[in-house]
Amino acid sequence: AQSVTQLGSHVSVSEGALVLLRCNYSSSVPPYLFWYVQYPNQGLQLLLKYTSAATLVKGINGFEAEFKKSETSFHLTKPSAHMSDAAEYFCAVKRQNFVFGPGTRLSVLP
Amino acid sequence: SQTIHQWPATLVQPVGSPLSLECTVEGTSNPNLYWYRQAAGRGLQLLFYSVGIGQISSEVPQNLSASRPQDRQFILSSKKLLLSDSGFYLCAWRGQFNTEAFFGQGTRLTVV
Fold first, then answer.
1. Is B46 in Cβ contact with A97 (below 8 Å)?
2. b vs e for A35-62, b when ≥16 Cβ sit within 10 Å of the residue's Cβ?
3. Cβ–Cβ of B90/A45 closer than 8 Å?
4. Which of A19, B2, B19, B54 has its CA 20 to 30 A from that of A85?
5. CB contacts, 8 Å: A45 with chain B
6. Rounded distance between C-alpha atoms, residue B50 and residue A89, angstroms
7. For the stretch B47-61, what's the b/e string if a residue is b when 16 or more beta carbons lie within 10 angstroms of its beta carbon?
8. Could you give the CA distance from residue A23 to residue A35 in angstroms, rounded to a whole number?
9. B13-52 pLDDT, tens digit each
């Protein structure tokens, strides 16, 4: 069975600092991978996706993620955090259905 | 373009009352449809998914049911709500040629 782990339920960074949100998956075959963002009391919005093309994927709002098969990882990064990036971030994997990680809440400090 | 509508946005219901949450998708045909629940401080739990009219798969046995009476309509129901049914319910769809899912704005259900 597939699973997704996200190291760190809560991450705090200063405005302008690097954002790194970790995601590891378990799958015998590289799946489709996604990062979603959720703002309070809203649905999930797709940030980016990996579908076996380029291993470095660029998404919206300056985010990007790198697929590393050897590490079974798909970490999300952004060079410079903005206050508006404060939200909950979910990593997800899809084979037959979507499986979501537990989420990481990102706080951005002024 | 495709859009997904989910209502109501918030709902407060007494224990033992029935529930009906509705989700509709526009601009696509024969989508895969999903109901997820998000409990406070937790990730998303897949409740039901549907690949076509009248075809419902349940991922977790519980006090809820789902129906798909039309191609782009997905309904989440309960005959008698429990306190543990409180949470944030999200509807999502995936097109035949999409890899990603698209989410509605969610319904916050509070059972009192």
1. yes
2. bbbbeeebbbebbbbbeeeeeebebeee
3. no
4. B2
5. 103
6. 25
7. bbbbeeeeebeeeee
8. 9
9. 999 999 999 999 999 999 999 999 998 767 899 999 999 9
